[in-house]
Amino acid sequence: MTRIRKAACVGGGVIGGGWIARFLLNGIDVAVFDPHPEAQRIVGEVLDNARRAYGRMIQAPLCAEGKLSFHDDLATALDGAEYIQESVPEQLALKHRVLGQIEAHASPEALIGSSTSGFKPSELQEGAQHPERIFVAHPFNPVYLVPLVELVGSPANDEAALARAADIQRETGMMPLRVRKEIDAHIGDRLLEAVWREALWLVHDDVATTQEIDDVIRFSFGLRWAQMGLFETYRIAGGEAGMKHFIEQFGPALAWPWTKLMDVPEMTDELATKIGDQSDTQSGMHSIRELERIRDDNLIGIYQALKANDWGAGRTLREMEDRYFERAKAGAGAATPDYAAPLTLHRCRVSGDWLDYNGHMTEYRYLQVFGDATDAFLGHIGMDAAYRSAGRSVYTVESHIRHLAETSANTALTIRTTVLGHDAKRIRIHHEMLDEAGTLQATAEHMLMHVDTQAGRASPMAAPLTDRLAALSPGQRGLAAPDHAGRPIRDIGWPDPGAA
Ligand SMILES: NC(=O)C1=CN([C@@H]2O[C@H](COP(=O)(O)OP(=O)(O)OC[C@H]3O[C@@H](n4cnc5c(N)ncnc54)[C@H](O)[C@@H]3O)[C@@H](O)[C@H]2O)C=CC1
Ligand SMILES: C[N+](C)(C)CC(=O)CC(=O)[O-]
């Protein structure tokens, strides 16, 4: 895996903003160059939505965000960047100008990806000094959630550079697809354009409204496409007779004039207004940011369902979460912490949608944060995917949370963990949740049980857990247990029925 420290994003609009969020939330520093006077506000809003989405989607301890910086000149933005993503508007002359400027200031080893939806890499490379490191890295909106990135090179490209770019993207939870041959609009947009062209005709000819077309998609094949593509879906549609039978049955229909094929409706003012008005009726009651949040929540639900089946984009999400666990473990293990003090293994920020009707972090989010801290602790003592794949894991069997403050949105939380004791099968831990000022927000005490997941019963821990616990025990057992440790919820009795 290739993990970079710094990326630069040139252009911070819809797509550049998504790339910025993808890099930052995966712990990579990002320098932005975008002359738009409101670039910082726009990127900030995309980032807010991305943080909210990751808080809901990632069931692993998120890593510390990378550092975000905005620059007035391109040269300082590119300084030290190992990967550069260009996302300026889709005009070839502008892309040539910007790529030329990038080449003039970037470090010689830096990789340069372009978000272009339509241009071929050989077109982008025209006039370049080092065409071998300029390639298409075409993402899908929202870049921070949708995993696919089409990685397209020309014969001038250096394959090793493309492989390195794929590694960098994989490390941020993306799914790079190396497109075999360069072609206008790559793969995804060619497919989308065919559907888009037909949809425009259907509106133009008053066959359907924008709402009706969207309903046809989301209530039918759109549902299928998130989990199986065209070919696998049609294989099933061929029944037991199979794919060849399907082609024989439905192939001839392609020769009939079902669709308008390459014909495109003229984009007159009248058609643009018609589509704009219908779209306002359909969705105008929501702001763009609201629509983005609705879209993100739906995508996350789909992602989670696919993850449960370890299928398609759900598998990509699981691998992304494994990487977060690995990072938590590596971060914690980079320097052996002082075991004679509480361990700081998990940090996070309170997302705006974690609040209850009192405007404070809602109860189950405390358990989520403490659960993530427990996972970070277990990662620290060596419980990783390899350990679990041997049929061993750790379950939480008892928890006691104390809510001590009104934790509000955006608070940066630090969790300090202490081991209160352990035996062959159990570990008793205590977490303190602190805000930026060090004010205690909540505490949690948990009993963790080591289990043989195949037999479904408690079992003794094995190496490396046993060794790591042995290493940290002398320091941790010297720490005074908090006075509330082991305390049950106090019995307050009942009112005296005779009183009153
Ligand atoms: N919007 C979409 O759905 C998708 C767009 N793309 C591609 O991404 C690229 C960007 O598209 P969007 O983000 O939609 O456009 P956008 O208009 O939202 O953003 C473009 C940004 O580039 C900035 N910019 C203009 N000139 C610049 C320069 N010389 N240096 C630095 N920044 C400059 C603008 O201020 C603006 O913020 C295009 O190539 C497009 O084809 C790719 C996938 C999806
Ligand atoms: C409309 N578009 C061509 C810019 C779309 C894309 O490039 C991909 C997407 O996100 O749909």
UniProtKB/TrEMBL annotation:
<dbReference type="InterPro" id="IPR036291">
    <property type="entry name" value="NAD(P)-bd_dom_sf"/>
</dbReference>
<dbReference type="InterPro" id="IPR006176">
    <property type="entry name" value="3-OHacyl-CoA_DH_NAD-bd"/>
</dbReference>
<keyword id="KW-0560">Oxidoreductase</keyword>
<comment type="similarity">
    <text>Belongs to the 3-hydroxyacyl-CoA dehydrogenase family. L-carnitine dehydrogenase subfamily.</text>
</comment>
<dbReference type="GO" id="GO:0005737">
    <property type="term" value="C:cytoplasm"/>
</dbReference>
<dbReference type="InterPro" id="IPR006108">
    <property type="entry name" value="3HC_DH_C"/>
</dbReference>
<dbReference type="GO" id="GO:0070403">
    <property type="term" value="F:NAD+ binding"/>
</dbReference>
<feature type="binding site">
    <location>
        <begin position="11"/>
        <end position="16"/>
    </location>
    <ligand>
        <name>NAD(+)</name>
    </ligand>
</feature>
<keyword id="KW-0963">Cytoplasm</keyword>
<dbReference type="InterPro" id="IPR029069">
    <property type="entry name" value="HotDog_dom_sf"/>
</dbReference>
<feature type="domain" description="3-hydroxyacyl-CoA dehydrogenase C-terminal">
    <location>
        <begin position="187"/>
        <end position="253"/>
    </location>
</feature>
<dbReference type="InterPro" id="IPR026578">
    <property type="entry name" value="L-carnitine_dehydrogenase"/>
</dbReference>
<dbReference type="Pfam" id="PF13279">
    <property type="entry name" value="4HBT_2"/>
</dbReference>
<dbReference type="Pfam" id="PF02737">
    <property type="entry name" value="3HCDH_N"/>
</dbReference>
<dbReference type="Pfam" id="PF00725">
    <property type="entry name" value="3HCDH"/>
</dbReference>
<protein>
    <recommendedName>
        <fullName>L-carnitine dehydrogenase</fullName>
        <ecNumber>1.1.1.108</ecNumber>
    </recommendedName>
</protein>
<feature type="domain" description="3-hydroxyacyl-CoA dehydrogenase NAD binding">
    <location>
        <begin position="6"/>
        <end position="182"/>
    </location>
</feature>
<dbReference type="GO" id="GO:0009437">
    <property type="term" value="P:carnitine metabolic process"/>
</dbReference>
<keyword id="KW-0520">NAD</keyword>
<comment type="function">
    <text>Catalyzes the NAD(+)-dependent oxidation of L-carnitine to 3-dehydrocarnitine.</text>
</comment>
<comment type="subunit">
    <text>Homodimer.</text>
</comment>
<comment type="pathway">
    <text>Amine and polyamine metabolism; carnitine metabolism.</text>
</comment>
<dbReference type="InterPro" id="IPR013328">
    <property type="entry name" value="6PGD_dom2"/>
</dbReference>
<dbReference type="GO" id="GO:0006631">
    <property type="term" value="P:fatty acid metabolic process"/>
</dbReference>
<dbReference type="InterPro" id="IPR008927">
    <property type="entry name" value="6-PGluconate_DH-like_C_sf"/>
</dbReference>
<dbReference type="GO" id="GO:0047728">
    <property type="term" value="F:carnitine 3-dehydrogenase activity"/>
</dbReference>
<feature type="region of interest" description="Disordered">
    <location>
        <begin position="475"/>
        <end position="500"/>
    </location>
</feature>
